[in-house]
Amino acid sequence: MLLSVVxxxxxxxxxxxxxxxxxxxxxxxxxxxIRQEIVFINDGSxxxxxxxxxxxAQKDTRIKAVHFSRNFGHQAAVTAGLDIASGDAVVxxxxxxxxxxxxxxxxxxxxREGYDIVSPxxxxxxxxxxxxxxxxxxFYSLMKTGVDKRLASQVGDFRLYSRAxxxxxxxxxxxxxxxxxxxxxxxxxEALVPFQxxxxxxxxxKYPLWKMVRFAWTAITSSSALxxxxxxxxxxxxxxxGFIYLGYILYVTFVTQTTVPGWSSLASLQVxxxxxxxxxxxxVGDYLARVYEExxxxxxxxxxxxxxxxxxxxxxxxxxLPERKNPSDVRRVA
Length: 334
Ligand code: UDP
Ligand code: MG
What we know:
Layout: E1 2-9, H1 15-29, E2 35-42, H2 49-59, E3 63-68, H3 74-84, E4 89-92, H4 104-112, E5 117-125, H5 130-147, E6 159-162, H6 163-170, H7 179-186, E7 190-197, H8 209-223, H9 226-255, H10 263-296, E8 302-307, E9 319-320
Parallel strand pairs: 1-2, 1-4, 2-3, 5-7, 8-9
Antiparallel strand pairs: 3-8, 4-6, 5-6
Helix pairs in contact: 9-10
Bound molecules: uridine-5'-diphosphate and magnesium ion (MG).
């Protein structure tokens, strides 16, 4: 069997050498029959990652490298990895050793039992702030109850995909990607493997708070129309409230006849309804913007150059620029 390991890289010059060493050591210890390839996606790094990757690819022919033309984001990088990987089993992991390569044999074992998806589940998270832990927990519960109950909690993008699962994922080409949601949507047989998530070995997280918030929003809106429905529900509730209030107005006007200039009630009604309407319009606008972006149908990523890649994959929604000269090789004509 062929095992592919897919790793996205964005400014990982510090973690890359450490990670490569540990990964190679683990792969070398795997049993004889397992052929291997390592697919790295350089997601527009602007540090030494690209150079280090090029050098590593020359030394180790298992390494296949793809360099994006700019930063397209983690989810796009993993997508490219799944497009390129030709393994019978494909494992996606982080470059910072938060996802231990030593878990590979256990994951392969589950794969051999016939599972299409093997997801390591974090039973503990080291080196993360309590804020990140609490918000992550809240996010998982919200996603599970409101969006998709098939989502496993405390499972990130560290995962083994069978060939069938990879082909399934290649069929889903939406621009706003939440891979976990897409995996759950496919509905394949999934095994969970518990593990302790350690801290990043080097470098800083590429997911600061604002990116996490944006990611969470994409997760929710790309997997469900729940926010739209919440708005309609809120609209319904405030309308009901409005009718009850109308009853009260009619009562004080015609029965008790104690009406006073009702400026305050009018004003508060205004504020209430204007708020609801604006919120609803905003939400509709957000979905509309997403539909617009999907309708443009641009590729998910642009590949600038590759190393050790024999043939380009036949997938939709990806742009592969042809081989060409490196600017440093081009001599200027005065
Ligand atoms: N990454 C990427 N593109 C990005 C951000 C991150 O390819 O725009 C890579 C990064 O190099 C790492 C993985 O995605 O291998 C996960 O990122 P990180 O470890 O910073 O996220 P965290 O584990 O803190 O959520
Ligand atoms: Mg990480």
